[in-house]
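Hi C.,

You asked whether I'd gotten around to modeling the 125-residue construct. I have! Everything is below, sequence then structure, no commentary in between.
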Amino acid sequence: MKTKPAASKTPPRILRREDSLKSRLYRGICMRVLYECDGLEVVRTEMEPGTVLDDADINNLAGLHFVIDGGPVFHVASQSSDLMPGDSIALHDGQHCTVSNPVSSCSSILSFLFKTSDRKKEISR
């Protein structure tokens, strides 16, 4: 008969919409780090209408991006992809990417960013 492992006594950690480990606001774009560990960072990005986010702004967008709200456009190489809520896109390390929000409402994106050694150096600054 197998026994269940003892349950952790640590309560679950809840982050409310306005909470984050760290955040950055610039040019109508708010990026909030919700979770981070050695190789992964979970980020919620909110983009005002007409704003543009370039991978140079945060060094690397390699990871999985899930559109929560709005209609952002991901420009990768020579292709543009209009995404809608529920859509996702996977970007690889080294791919140059720009995200724009051409719609008249805010766009929200939940991203699982894979930290490369360059990105780890930038975050620690």
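If it helps when you're writing up: Helices lie at 55-58, 117-124.

Thanks,
B.
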